[in-house]
Amino acid sequence: MDGRRWLKVAILLCLVVVSAGRELKFRHNHQFPIYNHTLATILVEYASAVYLSDLTELFTWTCSRCDGLTKGFEMIELIVDVQHCLQGFVGVAKDLNAIVIAFRGTQERSIQNWVEDLYWKQLDLNYPGMPDAMVHHGFYNAYHNTTVRPGVLSAVKEAQELYGDLQIMVTGHSMGGAMAAFCGLDLMVNCKAQNVQVMTFGQPRVGNSAFVSYYNELMPNTIRVTNGHDMVPHLPPYYSYFPQKTYHHFPREVWLHSIGFGSLVYPVEKVCDGSGEDPTCSRSVSGKSISDHLMYYGVKLGGDPEGTCRIVMDPHVAAYRTEDLSGNLVFSKYPSASVLKINTDLDPNVQGSII
Ligand SMILES: *[C@@H]1O[C@H](CO)[C@@H](O)[C@H](O)[C@H]1NC(C)=O
Ligand SMILES: *[C@@H]1O[C@H](CO)[C@@H](O)[C@H](O)[C@H]1NC(C)=O
Fold first, then answer.
1. Which domains occur in the chain, in start order?
2. Whole-number Å distance between alpha carbons of 214 and 226
3. Tell me, what's the pLDDT at 157?
């Protein structure tokens, strides 16, 4: 072979390498969500508002937590699964040009007890359609096996009919974050929705590493915010010596914490690596704080008062409701469109203590 031919081969190889490099770089940019601080400070207010038990104030978006950055939110549907003490809503945020879906975290017991129970949650359910992907049945069921899912899906459809194909932003705090992740995945996989993004605050782990691979592939536009020493993101535990068997977080974590000393303390928002289990983020601290769990970006999360499932509504808003045989409620701005599926086949054993 003469020199010129070698040269050609070499040039060709370079081109291949360069274009492969470009391809990778492009995929890299495309693949990873960009953390947007402003958006986080807005979505956390939705995740906070959904905890409130005065359904009138929530439905009409006049609650104490409905003011700041979420002003002007157009509620479409408020879903109250009384049976399992779950709550969520779907509406349109015109300033974000997005449908916002928010889920409440746990309300049924003291947060301390709930967190302690998280240690013992098993990876006991195979996520349908994803070989080897295991999740905890309670988190899965809270979204998939209650009135929450049919309520959310019909409201999303309604919002799309009214406002067109907007971006969908799914959010939630604590267990509501776990539900947000399942909802985002559901919209993407089963409803073929485009443009879904998930942002959660202080959520627990929900599945194993096989689940995380699928999740990450399907829902790359996910940000999982953790705060300081918040205990919940540390649970159920991650066992680094059993990588195939353990719970595993999906990416991308953004860890809020403070660095510095004395009067020189300043806040940092660290965008973590793509593993989901970046050892230099929240995993670098022991994580034993409940108070860090209940405050993100200076916004209070959790119920008021904590730990009750009571609901409050006045006759005006009651007129918008549909109720099923179990007392579950859906409030819809467009009642004709509301489809509260009467879920007769729920497992009676999960009632009242879904996780
Ligand atoms: C961040 O989000 C806000 C609110 O949605 C938006 O106005 C802004 O353009 C976003 N910034 C970037 C860099 O995407
Ligand atoms: C959800 O409910 C259905 C109907 O009762 C049941 O067959 C299924 O096992 C439940 N799913 C899970 C994950 O428990």
1. 33-350 (3.40.50.1820)
2. 22
3. 94
